[in-house]
């Protein structure tokens, strides 16, 4: 439990620091949902999920560039995800959002999201995936939104993202505490 509390405190501090550097808040205040308490050994995230979480948050502010896949060239949404997973977890993912959504990975209900899960959206209506991000916890995800923008944190509870939400995939499975030496 102490590990979880330390992780939540560190995430809150990182979010506060990033919020201090962010643009003014949107006109409608969105309250973050209360963090889900971890209560079973299988609920504890792996070290790789933590690495993905911190790497993704560390890229907030990087410019958007269609087809971009590095911090120096900028990112589009799938390039950001691929870079973070390769760099932080040593996991190669497909390059497009459609291929990522089609991967043989566990689909996750929105109510069971964990840090490191991939979230997919249809920003143009219908059921065709057109955008993706990395869930970082506390109802937020990191994504590279659009031309002229930068990588940023966003709330899944924002009406736009709720309407566009399609699915989530868990690429990194949690480790069981019983398996740790």
TrEMBL record:
It comes from the Bacteria. Keywords: Hydrolase, Protease, Signal, Thiol protease. The keyword Nucleus does not apply. The keyword DNA repair does not apply. Residues 1-22 form the signal peptide. InterPro entries: NLP_P60_dom, Papain-like_cys_pep_sf, Peptidase_C40. Residues 46-172 form the NlpC/P60 domain. PANTHER family: MUREIN DD-ENDOPEPTIDASE MEPH-RELATED. Belongs to the peptidase C40 family. This is C40 family peptidase. It comes from Pseudomonas typographi.
